[in-house]
Amino acid sequence: MCVVAHYIDGNWNLQTHVLAFIELDPSHSGNVIADALYAVVTEWNIETKIMSITLDNASNNDGAVEALKAKFLFQRGKDFEGQYFHIRCCPHILNLVVQDGTTILDNLINSLRETVKYFKRSPSHLHAFVATCKSLGVKVGNHLHLDCKIRWSSTFKMISTARGYKEALTSHAGSNANYAWAPTNAEWDMYDLISPLLESLAEVTKAFSGSLYPTSNIFYPYIVGVKLAIEHAMASDSDHYKEMGEAMLEKFDKYWEEKNNAMVIATIFDPRYKMGYIEWSFGELYGEGSTMFRTEIKIMEKELAALYEKCVAQYKRAGNGEISSSSTNIPSIPVQAGYESFLLSRSTRISKSELRNYLEDEVAPRNKALDLLGWWKDNAPRYPIMDKIARRFLTIPATSVSLESIFSTTGRILDDYRSSLKPVMVEALVCGASYIKGAHVDLNLVQRDENEEDDVENIKLPKLPIVVEEIND
């Protein structure tokens, strides 16, 4: 089990460090995982600082989350905000969502899959296909790709590369009796129809896979985009595409129908979105002015107000604590009844005013290049209360990809010469590398080939002299 800590330091830099890389008992039950995680955070003395945990969607992880929430609630009481604790890994859910959709189209995709297998089996088949491309003037560039059925991204890669060879594959089938798997025109039309949706989902997955920038603020906008794209598919005239959309929406709602408002709040702390985007998106999802729309808006406003009141109260208590412990024998000053309540309410009004100022200030340009953490570093003096809240919510990772890179088979932590090291030494290597290299590099110790892709088998097209001449022309 790998435990990775994410936090924003005093200079508003996102930091990522491996805290533990340990061997678990074989049962891997929820309680075993919870006990191991709790032991790690207590060893590092950060149990009171934990905001959330991002995990994939295995049932034992769900059990671990419930056990951890009970532990933290017992230790931290009301200070523990359990409603924000469990973050589901977005790429994992997207994989499940799209996998259910592409399974519906499996029969349509099978012709393309068998096509790639046909060329994979024989170099002579590949040479003949390249000759066909030459005769038609089709540029031979991208390799053919054979997908892994349980990874939709590899299926998208297979479809997108094959579409460039549509004319050549159709012609090749007409002149080669042994090639009997050429996709039909209807199947090509379906590939063209679903490709934009799959491409947009691939972009979402790529955006969430970054470890050098915050991802919590983009989580909700991207998920809204996915939901709207799926609903668009369900409105299609194509029965196959509509069925695909219905299957995807069913899986989508299974995991995200009950949203974690931590990610919605993180979006509000992005000056390009603020509350205006939340109102617009709720209108798109629930219908502007509907009962659900008004209810959800009120919930968000209430949660924001509660966060500010809690933050102000914490700082007020901290200030009182410093005064009471500074000296002794100082005579107390009589205070009129109700004055303490007045001060607390005044502090709350100040924090609400700061919130209102932020929300009413002009939104930042929708520029993808915005350095969000740099923006907050520059504007922290304007929003001293929001600064503290933003730091917490923008730290949350939307994915466990950085953790999984530790286990990558193509970018391995350990090579074959170090595969017999004891677990404690492996942990020392992993954690040590994380701290030596710092937060702004890949967690892998062994660099992967830039041409390698997980779950995709490349079928390289031969570079025949006849093709080279065509390219040079």
Automatic annotation (TrEMBL):
InterPro entries: hAT-like_transposase_RNase-H, HATC_C_dom, RNaseH-like_sf, ZnF_BED_domain_contain. It is found in: Nucleus. Its main location: nucleus. Keywords: DNA-binding, Metal-binding, Nucleus, Zinc, Zinc-finger. The keyword DNA-binding applies. One of its GO terms (molecular function) is DNA binding. Residues 354-431 form the HAT C-terminal dimerisation domain. GO terms for cellular component: nucleus. Residues 209-308 form the hAT-like transposase RNase-H fold domain. This is AC transposase.
